[in-house]
């Protein structure tokens, strides 16, 4: 059984090596073979409706949603029209902010495939950690610094225009679908959104580690395979390109080398790089996103959020596991959460159900102030800190002071948690990383502490990826040490055992779900460790909240 898993790991490593591309420096083009000037996307206000894509498109499970929600009967339409009239005129400038709640459904792989899932999660996480590391170091030393120097003589970008809502600011909840990507071979979470006029359904990866919202677009010159058709701006009456002379064009990085802005109606090209072979390039634009708002009466309403800045990607590369694109929740001004601040305030939260939950049980994503959460006595806060001289304002950094295993603080040098001179290091909380990772020597010390404190269980030494692992066959409730994180401001985050030990083989083998990264690298609190905690991101007060919660009941 274990030998099969090891063989799978070897195959994954070989395949991964075969698919690896050399990375050029930031001063050279990362998109070999793609000639931007010849493509009309960079020289016209709207893109051509023709496509060079030949990837298969699967049918949508609910075609009626793709036609602008026309499946409602006449009585419902009349009621919705009445409600829309009641909601008009509230404007965005009022003091009252809405609360938006999204359902996040999980699609788990079968339990007998847990071993393969563990190996795949490790491989995905390592690629993502490399991505985050390179984005921090190269963004700090080359990308934005050199770009700022080049553009010092140019006019400063104006503040981004706030999106507009079609209704008044009535307190309500937004219900969409956010699913785990485990069944698709992904450790990320997916959120269903409706884009354009009429609204079209797309599944986007939710990512607190990036800012830009983007979707694969027609015409598709170089795109990865996704579930369902690509977004076509020619079929949306609300799509608007941002011109290259528009101050908002300075909010995105341009392709390398930058394209000259000659014509008044020339589009704003963007290039967003994820550090590995993943990237997206296309037109920076505005579009209407439609969300499903549940009113206090319990009746659903459709709410349009207009003028959302996003990337219409015509060249997209990377492993995005069937998604149509990505929805950024980072701290930067381009992220979906930042753009919605004028509507819902400066906070959002999510609550992720545990991996043993029924597939029909939903996780939740909430935009706006959650009064129920804020009133809880067991809600703890720690400060969100900034990176050292760090222009990368995307990540949610926290300052770890120490680690507690089995009730005792383990001996980890304090400098492990500090930022490195090159801008790397520090600790972040991240929705896109599955397991948790601690920089060396912290990981080794944590692992040794667990091995010293676990008694009476047989150690399994030849299981790949995770260590230590224990044989728990016939053991009803294994006696495993407590685990907690102490932050520099005194906050303490204690975790239930199921958040840091994973059943690698159900009812037979449990393994520590924590791994290491090189010294001076990034430490990450991943989404597995966040299960059944309500996590609050409050950027106005620069704090992270966490409260133990049965997320299936939120």
Condensed summary:
The protein is of the alpha+beta class and about 550 residues long. Helix content is about 15%, strand content about 30%.
Characterization of this structure:
The structure is a single chain. The chain is α+β, with helices and mostly antiparallel strands and about 550 residues long. Helices cover about 15% and strands about 30% of the residues. It has helices at about 1-20, 75-85, 115-150, 335-340, 340-345, 370-375, 440-455; strands spanning about 100-105, 165, 175, 180, 190-195, 200-205, 215, 240, 270-275, 280-295, 300-315, 325-330, 345-350, 360-365, 380-385, 395-400, 400-405, 410, 425-430, 435-440, 460, 470, 485, 490-495, 500-505, 510, 515, 525, 535-540, 545-550. α1 runs parallel beside α3. It is globular. The model is unreliable at about 1-95, about 105-110, about 140-160 and about 165-175 (pLDDT under 50).
Termini gap: 38 Å
Give the number of helices.
7
Radius of gyration of CA atoms, rounded to a whole number: 24 Å
Number of strands: 30
Helix content: 10-25%
Instruction: Categorize the overall geometry.
Output: globular
Which residues sit in consecutive blocks of at least 5 with pLDDT less than 50?
1-94, 106-112, 140-162, 166-173
Report strand order across the widest sheet: 1-14-13-29-30-15-16-19-28
| Main sheet: strands, sense, barrel | 9 strands, mixed
**Which class do the helix and strand fractions yield?**
alpha+beta
Annotate the secondary structure layout:
Elements: H1 2-18, H2 74-87, E1 100-105, H3 114-150, E2 164-165, E3 173-174, E4 178-180, E5 189-195, E6 200-207, E7 214-216, E8 240-241, E9 268-273, E10 279-294, E11 300-317, E12 325-328, H4 336-339, H5 341-344, E13 347-351, E14 362-367, H6 371-374, E15 380-385, E16 397-398, E17 400-405, E18 408-409, E19 427-429, E20 436-439, H7 442-453, E21 458-460, E22 469-471, E23 483-487, E24 492-495, E25 501-505, E26 509-512, E27 514-517, E28 523-525, E29 533-538, E30 543-548
Parallel strand pairs: 6-12, 7-11, 19-28, 20-27
Antiparallel strand pairs: 1-14, 2-11, 3-10, 4-5, 5-6, 5-10, 7-12, 8-10, 9-10, 10-11, 13-14, 13-29, 15-16, 15-30, 16-19, 17-18, 17-23, 21-22, 22-26, 23-24, 25-26, 29-30
Helix pairs in contact: 1-3
